[in-house]
Structure of N-(5'-phosphoribosyl)anthranilate isomerase:
Amino acid sequence: MTHRTRIKICGITREQDLAEAVAAGADAIGFVFYPKSPRYVTPQRAAELIRLLPPFITAVGLFVNASADEVVATVQQAPLSLLQFHGDETVAQCDSAANAANRPFIRAMRVGTATVADDLIKYAHDYRAGSRLFAGLLLDTLVDGYGGSGKVFDWSLIPKELAPQVVLSGGLSVQNATDAVVRVRPYAVDISSGVEQSKGIKDVAKIRAFIAAVRQADASSN
Ligand SMILES: O=C(O)c1ccccc1N[C@@H]1O[C@H](COP(=O)(O)O)[C@@H](O)[C@H]1O
């Protein structure tokens, strides 16, 4: 069966970056609601940007340790399709916020040098069992802070049976996109720093080159 790797471009703050990402073929656009991030947007700003999205492109809201009330208030202003929990939230906290906001969510697991393949399998299992709104696992690199670091983790840790379901992130770039897709064969890839000219400001040429590389890797692997 042919596989089309879904592509999420995260940390969009400007109209022109949103339009370019969509025109280049992005499947999902991420908005960062973590105030400490240089890519932070207010819910009102996200709402203005989401209004510009055509149908069938997923608007993803990224949260780090936000309360359920904050998630609900954000969704009331900005019509997000999917939530991304990227902090220290427990299964119960993700489930409760997702239920309160009535949205499915993906959960980031940050992978470090001490992580083993069984940790990833258990993590995915716990979320699948713990929430009907759990839509998938995102794998990022464990760093100080929470994400958007531009750092890669060891992809060989990803168990073969988990790879087709995961969103691969952490330090993806134009340079390693082909390798990532051909080696891991993830469900989706998520990129922020690797397509920026500076934090929060995207680089159109990098967005186009990244998406083209993923599509080419799909074609060569199918
Ligand atoms: O983008 C951010 O600023 C951010 C802040 C806090 C948590 C996650 C964040 N971004 C996510 O981090 C990964 C990896 O990003 P990168 O490509 O290595 O820069 C990605 O899932 C972003 O959505």
